[in-house]
Amino acid sequence: MTRPVAKRRSFAGRSSIAGPSSSTGSRARAGIRPFGRLALLALLLVSALALGACSDDSHTRVTTGTYAGESGQNAPYLNVGSLIYEVQLSRELNPEDTEDASYLTGLTPAQLRLRPGEEWFAVFVQVYNESSAPHLAAKEFTISDTQSNVYLPVVPSLTNEFSYQRVAYAGPLAPKARIPALNTVAANGPTQGALLLYKIKVVSLDNRPLELNIIDPLNPTQTASAELDV
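The chain above was modelled as a monomer; its predicted structure follows.
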């Protein structure tokens, strides 16, 4: 997984043109050099402390966050068990739209049927296994609103190439692997995420914020949540 990396400035030493040789010039240069060395040592010390702080922060577990949507800020990386999750996008789906219709493939006629007051809602996620061992990906993702309505995902068949379950249900996620895998239809698609598909009540769009809850498959008491963009 590629994470944002703080940019480092490169300080190039300035070249100088030596003037006429003189004892005064030599004494001046001799007086400057120790100060320059001390400044350089101080700079190196500050840089090391800063890098150490960044390293510590990178190991902090995060289990809650907010997806900012069109503001341009992504959700934080959420830790669930040994894997890391990030919401790429969340939005309503229009079955009449060509792109959105592709997200509804692999559903039975019963699954495709919406009740009055319901609509399709999609959440696109990425999952990363940065460890050196295989780990099970979460299978339970619920969406809840402020009125305690809870929604479970609709699971399409394997013919849906965007489906999160297509990969997550196949077995443990391999070391250094991700969902969706690189160079797949889902990874190369508009959202670059794996699809979690829901039928939600239209009224829930007014009971915001909607929250995605991710449950650790090995320890249900361990969860993470992300506030969704609508």
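The radius of gyration is 26 Å.
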